[in-house]
Every structure is written in C-alpha cells, then in structure tokens.
Write a structure and sequence with these properties.
Radius of gyration: 15 Å
Shape: globular
Strand order of the largest sheet: 3-2-1-4
Distance between the termini: 45 Å
Low-confidence stretches: none
Largest sheet: 4 strands, mixed
Number of helices: 6
Mean pLDDT: 94
Strand content: 15-25%
C-alpha cells in the first residue's frame, strides 16, 4: 500500500493528512512544521509517505470550509488502524459529540463502555493520530476547564469558540 500525505494551511498550523490507497484517512495532525507530523506517521507505519499534489477526498477544501465556519462535519472515511483497542473505541465515541458542544472525559468513558476509564480517554485524545476529523478538542475536564489540544489550551479554546461553544 502507498501512503500519501497532503498539507493544508489552517489558522492553527499546517494540517497534515495521511491517506492510504483507498482514500481513507489514517492520520491528521497539525503543527507549525509539517515534516514533524510526516516523520511521526512514517515511524508509526514503518513506511515512507509520498507527497500528494491533489486534494485527497476533498479534505483540504473541507478544512478551509470548517475554519471559515461553513462546515460542521467532515466527509471522509476513517481508517482506524493507528487507534487500536480502547483508544479506538474512545475516539469513535468522541466522533459523536455534536458540533458546538463539549463532553467530559468521564462522559466519553461512559459512552465508550468503560465508566471508570476517564484517564484512558484523556490519553486516547492526547495521542490521537486523527485531530479535527475526530473532534478531540470537544472533550474537556469534568470541572469545565478545557485542558489542552496538542499541548496548547489556546488552540482548544479557539476551536471551541469557532464552533460557537462557550468556554470558561
């Protein structure tokens, strides 16, 4: 299988998306340096990634629409192979948080079928290979504080506010 990647500029950094031959997304990360994401996914897959010059699955256009406030969901198929076990279950549950709403790590643990696994949900969100299309930014602490997105609370706040959610 050939893995291709695209880079889309966003207000929170370069969004690097990795796709397989079937055009399902395996990874989407944001960083100031796109090569940081490419190198991380290359290590995880143990394969080189090929730069694509087309908008695979239309994700680049969808990201632009999302950040312009014109899109609420992403229309891409997800390949969950980089999120095995409970992490994948938790991230699938996160996909059900509606645009503009938030849920706590504990609520996500309940929805994923493990009510006492809030910390495991936090770990899954922290290390997810799929940001934005899996809206981990919508998961907050039980006390209502935000926590972080990619190590940055300001980015999490920006994404929640973009979606019209309220933050403390």
């Amino acid at each position: 299988m050939t893995y291709r990647f695209t880079v889309t500029a966003t207000p929170i950094g370069a969004a690097v998306a990795v796709f397989g031959d079937d055009e399902r997304i395996l990874a989407l990360g944001t960083a100031e340096d796109p090569l940081w994401v490419v190198e991380g996914v290359t290590r995880e897959l143990r394969r080189e990634l090929v730069a694509a010059h087309d908008d695979i699955a239309g994700l680049g256009a969808q990201l632009t629409e999302y950040f312009d406030g014109r899109r609420r969901t992403f229309d891409v198929e997800i390949d969950w192979r980089l999120s095995p076990g409970f992490a994948g279950e938790a991230l699938r549950a996160v996909c059900d948080i509606p645009y503009g709403e938030t849920a706590s790590y504990g609520e996500m643990a309940d929805r994923a079928g493990r009510p006492r696994a809030a910390r495991a949900v936090g770990t899954a969100c922290r290390f997810t290979p799929l940001t934005l299309v899996v809206p981990v930014h919508r998961v907050i602490r039980s006390d209502g504080s935000l926590g972080e997105f990619g190590g940055r609370e300001d980015v999490k706040r920006q994404l929640i506010e973009l979606e019209g959610g309220s933050v403390r």
